[in-house]
Amino acid sequence: MSSILITGSNRGMGLEWARQYAARGWRVYATCRQPEEADDLRGLQRQHDHVSVHQLDVTSVDHIKKIIREFKATPLDILVNNAGVYYERWGKDKLGGIDYGAWQATFDVNTLGAVRVTEALRANLAQSEKRLVVVITSHMGSIADIKQANDYAYRSSKAALNAAVQGLVHELADDGIGVLLVHPGWVRTRMGGSEAPLSAAESVTHMRALAERFRPKDSGRFYRYDGSILPW
Ligand SMILES: NC(=O)c1ccc[n+]([C@@H]2O[C@H](COP(=O)([O-])OP(=O)(O)OC[C@H]3O[C@@H](n4cnc5c(N)ncnc54)[C@H](OP(=O)(O)O)[C@@H]3O)[C@@H](O)[C@H]2O)c1
Q: Which of 87, 182, 192, 195 has the highest CB neighbour number within 10 Å of its CB?
């Protein structure tokens, strides 16, 4: 049975990744910060006996160690680094109002978190057939896309994620592991808000298609959910 592990899968697009792969009969390891509060995931688990829920705060070294122990010698076909934060969406971040603590916390989740989890599960991915890491980035991580002030923390965290992924591509290729770096579009989630044009189901359906037709040459390209290429 093919398997997938998703970070931040209690809501938004992470939950949708879990739903779509559960519906296709995959073994789904759904991770989130607070499993006891993840009602939607628990509901999914009740519907499918091949779905399990695991605690994983991507900033927690203890959680990472626990995941390494729990998944020892378990092959993993796809890892989806989905967990993300966009703190300044709810506050001021112009010069004079920058919250540097929130900026550091943003890096800890959006940049370091994805690398930590990938590092932890590298051996599991290497043992699988598909051997794919999906990294959910943002068009806001495109330096070419910056046309205004604001969003310093989010933009720089995703640009740094993109840079880190370029390095990972080379190291993971040694184990035959590919990396799909993808912007999901503007999506109606708590982060994206209600005005966004895409539903989580639409976005994840497109990203899943990219994952399904992934080839090693696609590793590290900066994709939009629809398969077009974004500028760095
Ligand atoms: N929505 C958009 O338009 C859009 C556009 C471009 C890129 N993205 C990216 O898409 C990804 C998913 O976003 P979304 O729109 O689905 O956002 P969302 O609905 O706000 O969900 C974010 C998820 O990340 C989790 N998370 C936050 N901090 C975490 C941590 N330290 N450890 C583990 N999980 C953590 C949240 O868990 P809690 O419930 O515990 O907070 C939640 O499950 C993110 O990487 C985001 O940057 C979104």
A: 182
